[in-house]
Design goal:
homodimer, alpha/beta, 6-stranded antiparallel beta sheet, 14 helices, 14 strands, globular
């Protein structure tokens, strides 16, 4: 609300903060559960106990009625105004595979695809080629040169890769070339100036290099975005922040604000618990933990799977928490109602436990209880201040 | 939220508004009270009756997570954005003793202190000298001259005084000279330009004048602040406002926004009730009444004392109210949880009674009821609009 106020008041201490994000956590009543939500139906004894010792509230990811993508939703949770700091998909994808993006780089997502003899896209994912094939094809495209620019093509997963153009004066006013539908032609490269010319040249050469291959005989590009450095979270809030996320996208958005990424081995909640321990041991005092499956099952409209994803997280919590946190925040980045199979704008339940809280209002973690919780309903960007305050990391304002 | 909107709509009428501030009122659950708060535990039949006839809500003094000092917290209640209008301790102290500050004056707090032969501070309060001694010493320092400036030294209470420098181009970038700890030397005067030179000269002469006295043989200075005129509350909101506060700090912040101060004799709630009557008789229609002890006992961590302070206020209320108010607002400036012994960021319970309210939601004045109250949770700066509206002092917006 007040630009720079929290930064001015932030102060270091030894206390440890956990921000655990259950992706897509929020939901709405579903007849499948007699009007309850998956969170209300799930057995979550650990989070309920944290609720009793703490306080609930709701957060609005961007603005009332606005459905956020994952990038802006996470930026809000980290205390970054998601409208001021807009980050494109291409940038997130590149950061997610740990590509060392520089200020001014133009990044885009690539989908390997299959086109027919007439140039129509017949499979937007080229039959979901293996990640191994993706690596091979990406390395072929990585050899493409564009005069006056560096070009890097990096594999992501299955049919997904990303491309980064590096040079002076690049802009990201390039529409997606992905038609979004099969049986349509690729959208010709539009936009303006140097970026358009570079992308066009790249697209032509890529099509040429892939044309005799099958099924991945062409590419689609989307999410063009120029990378701009964001102010570092550690500097802004006097933190030493780390991320423990399994998916590239979330590792990427965390890197964007300067968090140190920790690898989880195995790539499970148990592996994440170990990574959390590692980060704490190494002196990090703000840890972002990301749990994806609740969102995926929401997008699939799979209520039992969403309940399981929440319960699985609850069962793993003790192993994450036993390394010692002073302040624990559990929330979603946004709502993904099963009945919508989409992200939505609905306020997201928020739990903060640890530090001085107005307790005794809520007894279990649910959308319903969160509505009347002691924390009230706030913008997601306010959460960082509550976490810092709860950990004694915010000085008093004024005399 | 919309700058200038409330001012545009404000209109005069005869109705009387009371803003009663129980300082530090808000609290959090304490095990000492089986999870209740002092306000929940206190017997407050009068405020409960006002609640039944009125409506509850919560206010956030500055921003979520931000703990306010008393100055900004009160400015918010008076409808002044506390981040936009930042007022330093020195200015508040000078206003509190009714010193007629002018725009551009540089003010600071003085503590008379004891230094040893080596210049180390051995008592930061000079054994809490009497107010009488303070007057004598202040008058000695008042004789100090600094070329090109006026210098005024005004006694406050016990070891506390304040100094005001008047002249062109003064700035307040002077750090405290108070080391904040005993057995440390005074901090040498730093900062820049004219102000630093003036303060340095003043400090040298003060040390010289006091050196043979005991125990107050030197001074410490802190809270340097240049006074800037604030827009007058009466002009902004078409009010005729008065304050009834026993402590200098709160009289000071009220003067800052243009309230007329009324003296209470005796300096008790009964004396304050008489002062309120006096103000009403003289046609004031917005009266700010300040009750301090709830905050002091919160800072002492003394739960029974905080309960007593609240109950004492409740018992005195009928004598304050019987002179006739159309709209009564009772709230705190911030929370001072006994378990923290500090100001805090927690939302503050708010009661508005009188005028058309959505009644029937809350039945007693407490943090818990306030959370679900009809007024909702708002920023403190919104309260003035609700009070004006409840008193019929806000015109309709638009046709």
């Amino acid at each position: 609300m007040y630009e720079g106020l929290i930064e001015e008041l932030a102060q270091k201490n030894e206390r440890k903060i956990l921000l655990a994000v259950i992706d897509g956590l929020g939901d709405i009543s579903t007849s499948e559960l007699d009007g309850r939500t998956p969170l209300e139906a799930a057995e979550t004894p650990v989070m309920d106990e944290l609720t009793v010792a703490g306080a609930l509230g709701c957060h609005i990811p961007v603005a009332r009625g606005v459905t956020p993508g994952s990038g802006p939703a996470h930026l809000g949770l980290f205390g970054y105004d998601p409208v001021k700091y807009q980050v494109g998909r291409g940038v997130l994808a590149a950061l997610g595979v740990e590509f060392p993006l520089q200020h001014g780089d133009l990044a885009a997502r690539i989908n390997f695809c299959t086109v027919d003899g007439e140039g129509k896209v017949i499979d937007r994912r080229a039959g979901r080629i293996s990640t191994e094939t993706c690596r091979k094809l990406s390395s072929i495209l990585d050899s493409i040169t564009v005069p006056g620019l560096e070009v890097h093509v990096v594999p992501v997963k299955e049919h997904r890769a990303c491309v980064v153009f590096r040079g002076e004066g690049l802009t990201d006013d390039i529409p997606d070339t992905d038609p979004g539908l099969v049986d349509h032609r690729k959208v010709p490269v539009k936009g303006s100036g140097k970026s358009r010319d570079a992308v066009r040249l790249f697209q032509q050469q890529a099509a040429e290099l892939l044309k005799d291959r099958h099924p991945a005989n062409d590419i689609l590009m989307r999410g063009f975005a120029v990378h701009r450095d964001l102010p570092c979270m550690n500097t802004r809030f006097q933190l030493n922040s780390a991320s423990v996320a399994l998916y590239p996208m979330y590792r990427g958005v965390a890197r964007l604000v300067g968090m140190k990424g920790f690898d989880s081995s195995p790539a499970t909640l148990q592996g994440q618990a170990k990574a959390v321990e590692d980060a704490l041991t190494r002196g990090f005092d703000y840890i972002f933990l990301h749990h994806k499956p609740a969102d995926s099952s929401g997008e699939d409209g799979n209520v039992p799977a969403k309940i399981r994803a929440i319960e699985e997280f609850d069962r793993a919590l003790p192993s994450i928490l036993h390394h010692g946190f002073d302040v624990i925040c559990i929330t979603g980045d946004h709502s993904t109602p099963c009945s919508m199979k989409l992200h939505s704008w609905h306020p997201v339940p928020l739990l903060i436990s640890g530090g001085p809280q107005r307790t005794g209002i809520s007894s279990c973690f649910s959308e319903r209880e969160a509505l009347g919780g002691a924390l009230g309903t706030m913008h997601s960007t306010d959460i960082i201040a509550l976490l810092l305050a709860s950990a004694g990391k915010l000085a008093k304002f004024g005399a």
